[in-house]
Design goal:
Layout (H helix, E strand, L loop, with lengths): L17 H13 L4 E13 L4 E8 L15 E4 L10 E7 L6 E6 L8 E6 L5 H13 L7 H11 L8 H4 L6 H9 L4 E5 L6 H14 L3 E6 L2 H17 L9 E3 L16 H29 L2 H35 L2 E5 H5 L2 H9 L5 E5 L7 H8 L5 E6 L16 H8 L2 H5 L3
Helix pairs in contact: 1-2, 1-13, 3-12, 5-6, 6-7, 8-9, 9-11
């Protein structure tokens, strides 16, 4: 979990800067419903790795049922102060299924955890976005502008030639309106709009295929795994219709596909194959680390010291394996022409995507699908990559972004999270 500095007071009224984005995301965090637990005892287990310390917490009788191994990886924090900050916060490493004893680690900047009430939080998918917004707000204190919006203005005033007609001639399945959309998508800023069932995803597949055949690169982002899978399948189908199927690794689906149909198209699943290659080792190391941390909680003296050293070594191996996996994904990405994934999974790999955008000579295209479901703030980190072309697809009248009911009176939440990419473009 990413935590805000308690000294900062972010605005409640609407703020059209990075501070407003951060305020909206902080409101989302505040509206989470944590699980309140009570610990009868918390004791130090000593250091784990440099800058971190291990603790074992024994839950009170009424809290034991709230804690089980499924909570491993969740965040734990002491009772919130009046200024909304936390005296200590940590990450759960293991939970003993027998008595609910929790082993967790805190960083060196926290106060020492004490027994009593604490709060359990699910893993927070917006944490990295809050970190991004906080860093941008700090960097641009003297300038309230948002750099990514400047990039959007540049694209709206930029002129690129349309795609040549031969790009549409290769696909006889295109209807006249879809053919026109493909040719016009060569511009710097394009909108592919249509109600459900009119063939937007089919058209996007043809557009992306045309970009591949021109030697260009594209990053395609969708709000859900289902949407991302449908785009990958549409691109593959369009490539087959043109009779020029791309080699394995040309189109890469990041994250975790959910479509059964993709299982039979292994040439699209290079990313998933890399994840599977490391999955067993990571699972075994994670289980071993959890077992050792639980054993540390039960041991004492030299035995506990020896177990801590073993746990630290397993954690080092776990970190190295994750680094090796990240390098394999990096290498895979650099060879791809098209990357398709959800906004959240791609943001977690933003460094890899930076390298993707820097590679190659052709134009770089950024594509958003199901734009009505994409909040304003989610678009900005990707626009910072400075694409040469932006394509937005979706239906203005479909469902908008999801935000928590607790934020319905918060202006920043309404604007930055409740409004979508079409609002950002002025298309309503």
């Amino acid at each position: 979990m990413t935590w805000a500095r308690p000294s900062k007071q972010w605005p409640v009224e609407l703020d059209l800067s990075y501070r407003g984005i951060l305020a909206a995301l902080q409101a989302e965090l505040a509206s989470l419903s944590p699980v309140k637990v009570t610990f009868a005892e918390i004791r130090s287990l000593g250091g784990a790795l440099r800058g971190h310390e291990l603790f074992a917490a024994v839950p009170a009788a009424q809290s034991k049922k709230k804690l089980d191994p499924s909570c491993e990886g969740w965040n734990l924090a002491g009772q919130r102060r009046k200024d909304r900050s936390y005296p200590w916060k940590g990450s759960i490493l293991s939970v003993d299924p027998a008595d609910g004893t929790v082993v967790f680690e805190v960083d060196g900047q926290s106060f020492v955890p004490t027994k009593g009430e604490a709060y359990l939080y699910e893993p927070d998918f917006q944490g990295e976005f809050r970190k991004w917004a906080f860093e941008r707000a700090e960097q641009r204190q003297a300038d309230d502008g948002i750099a990514a919006l400047d990039m959007l203005k540049e694209l709206s005033s930029k002129t690129l030639p349309p795609l040549p007609s031969r790009c549409a001639d290769r696909d006889e399945a295109l209807r006249p309106a879809q053919r026109m959309a493909l040719l016009r998508a060569g511009g710097a800023l394009s909108l592919v709009w249509g109600p459900p069932g009119t063939g937007k995803t089919f058209t996007l597949g043809a557009i992306i295929t045309a970009l591949i055949q021109r030697g260009e690169r594209a990053l395609v982002l969708a709000p859900t795994n289902n949407s991302a899978d449908e785009i990958v399948l549409a691109v593959d189908d369009a490539l087959k219709r043109t009779g020029k199927a791309a080699p394995e690794g040309t189109v890469v689906r990041t994250g975790h596909p959910v479509s059964k149909e993709l299982e039979s198209r292994g040439h699209l699943l290079a990313w998933t194959q890399v994840l599977a290659q490391y999955a067993d080792e990571l699972r075994a190391l994670t289980a071993e680390a959890s077992r050792l941390y639980a054993a540390v909680a039960r041991a004492s003296g030299r035995e506990a010291d020896a177990l801590r050293l073993q746990a630290a070594e397993v954690k080092r191996r776990l970190k190295k394996t994750r680094t090796d996996r990240a390098q394999a994904l990096w290498d895979l990405t650099l060879e791809a022409q098209v990357i398709v994934g959800t906004l959240h999974s791609c943001f977690f790999h933003i460094d890899i995507l930076d390298a993707f955008f820097r590679q190659g000579r052709g134009a770089k295209t950024l594509i958003f699908d199901e734009a009505s479901m994409i909040s304003r703030y989610l678009v900005l980190p990707f626009l910072e990559r400075r694409p040469d072309r932006l394509i937005v697809a979706g239906d203005i009248r479909q469902f908008g972004p999801i935000r928590r009911d607790g934020n319905k009176l918060d202006d920043n939440s309404r604007y930055w999270i409740g409004q979508n990419l079409f609002h950002l473009l002025g298309v309503t």
